[in-house]
Write a structure and sequence with these properties.
Helix content: under 10%
Shape: elongated
Structural class: mainly beta
Radius of gyration: 20 Å
Order of helices and strands: EEEEEEEHEE
Mean pLDDT: 78
Distance between the termini: 30 Å
Strand content: 35-45%
Largest sheet: 4 strands, antiparallel
Length: about 130
């Protein structure tokens, strides 16, 4: 491990708290350890209609390709080792947000809720993940 990871503060673990909440850093809740609030780690979580979820770290996002068609748009996100394909409507805004690493969750919705010409925001109707 890097020497910085071996750093030990002069405080006891009981004295280290987060100033914005009453939760001590490193607390374990339901077998899950929490990150600090100002963490630089950015992940992108994909959620399918059936409840399946998968996340990818933005650090491994190599490129994004957006194909705009009149009927349906397609976006391919190239992560190192995997390609995530999104299909949906009006995905241009989502492309711009991905450029800045802003989205945290992308959820697929049933296409039957899409009404032509009445939608302001984009909608993802299908998420496909494929290994390279």
């Amino acid at each position: 491990m890097h020497p910085v990871q071996h750093f030990k503060a002069n405080f006891s673990p009981n004295e280290v708290t987060d100033a914005t909440s009453d939760i001590r850093m490193g607390d374990v809740v339901a077998s899950t350890e929490w990150h600090e609030l100002d963490s630089n780690v950015r992940n992108l979580c994909f959620v399918w209609e059936d409840g399946r979820r998968a996340f990818f770290n933005y650090a491994y996002l190599v490129s994004v390709d957006l194909v705009l068609n009149d009927s349906m748009n397609m976006m391919q996100l190239y992560f190192s080792g995997q390609i995530v394909t999104l299909k949906g409507y009006q995905l241009g805004l989502l492309f711009d947000l991905l450029l800045k690493h802003i989205p945290k969750n992308i959820t697929a919705r049933n296409p039957r809720y899409h009404v032509d010409g009445q939608m302001q925001d984009g909608i993802v109707t299908e998420i496909l993940v494929r290994s390279e």
